[in-house]
Predict the 3D structure of the following.
Amino acid sequence: MNIRALELLIRWLLALFFGWSAWQKLVDLSAFTESVGNFQFEWEVSWGGELRNFFDPPTDVVIAYLVPWFELVAAAALLVPFSRDAASAVLADMLIVFNLALAYAWHRGITDLTCGCHGASDTPTNFPVKIALNFGLMALIGAAFLLRRQHQWLVRKIGGPRIPEP
């Protein structure tokens, strides 16, 4: 398998995974909103003259309604040549934020958290496995990026034929 084919395969697999994940959240936004609230973030702000948790309603609803759309658009953008680097950056950044949220909940001892990462579920999140999976996804995003850069370097160095962007 050549470099371009491997990079294309990784990008398609990532796009399918993140597209599926976004769709699972969009199918039941109320369950995903509940999952966002389950993280129990503590960040108190003065809101309307009173001290409130920033992640209480309506912020949890806004987050829950925006995250799947960012994920879906970024998944589709992975397949468009001029936007794949930006899409990779958005998805990697989202994974970093998700890992920080998972680490926060794990640190707080929340044992019955269902993260909602792939839609509604009754199974509590296995923090080490979920964090490791997210790091694996970040590694795949990085691999696709580096494979594309390596192909571009080889074309410039050897002067061989440039394979058109898929």
